[in-house]
């Protein structure tokens, strides 16, 4: 399989009680994912709370993640933003040692036209020799990367190799699958719809839930890719309520509550995010116990 087939996990950034980066927790998390047999890791995607990290912190986290991973799994770095020139500068300053690709979320807040989105990604593509994955998440960016724009980029920019699609639109998924180049990767950006997306031709998922259940979730994805949807469905249904709870008070507060239960890291987040409520933490703990049974 392609190295980005299967389950990639969008790693959280663990924090200490004083808000500093918890590198011990991050090391435990990376090893937990590798032991859980996921296919690849994403460092500092939006689940990593990149909006609240400064440049020095990002550089240290990327370097630390590559060091701990030590070539065991493919690595993707999340580098995006709504200032194209600044994104390109960050890519140029990025130490790509140990990394295989860049995941770049579409520009938020500006609400560019489709032509603006196309030119943004084209400029990113031309600024790096690394492979690039698009990330379409209109619920956070307030604009959609259309199927037409996605496929146009796939054809015109040879190092744009796939898209993490979190539009929630199966009509859009269908259009991408119909019109994309054969080797262009459609990757689910939403855990709850990863299984049905694979039935349409997606090659896997970049997951939040995998932080907590790497072994279970990656096995569900592998079964789906093999076409064994009956077996995959059993695992899919097993985590539906857990998944709903994890996102109830926003990401990554919920998934950090689960990681706290597993003694991997605390549920500390940085403002403007706040830790999960006691009620939600208890519900998540109850679900983990049920899933473990």
UniProtKB/TrEMBL annotation:
Which pathway?
A: Amino-acid biosynthesis; L-lysine biosynthesis via DAP pathway; (S)-tetrahydrodipicolinate from L-aspartate: step 3/4
Q: Which residues cross the membrane?
A: 193-217
SUPFAM superfamilies of this UniProt entry? Aldolase (SSF51569)
Q: So which domain of life are we looking at? A: Bacteria
Q: Give its E.C. classification number.
A: 4.3.3.7
Q: Where does the record place the site Part of a proton relay during catalysis?
A: 46, 109
- Provide the GO MF annotations for this entry: 4-hydroxy-tetrahydrodipicolinate synthase activity
What residues does pyruvate bind to? 47, 206
Q: Does the keyword Nucleotide-binding apply?
A: no
Q: Which residues form the active site?
A: 135, 164
Keyword Nucleotidyltransferase assigned: no
GO process terms (BP):
diaminopimelate biosynthetic process; lysine biosynthetic process via diaminopimelate
Key words of the record: Amino-acid biosynthesis, Cytoplasm, Diaminopimelate biosynthesis, Lyase, Lysine biosynthesis, Membrane, Schiff base, Transmembrane, Transmembrane helix
Task: Name the family.
Answer: Belongs to the DapA family.
- Reported function: Catalyzes the condensation of (S)-aspartate-beta-semialdehyde [(S)-ASA] and pyruvate to 4-hydroxy-tetrahydrodipicolinate (HTPA).
Q: What is this protein called?
A: 4-hydroxy-tetrahydrodipicolinate synthase
**Species:** Pedobacter cryoconitis
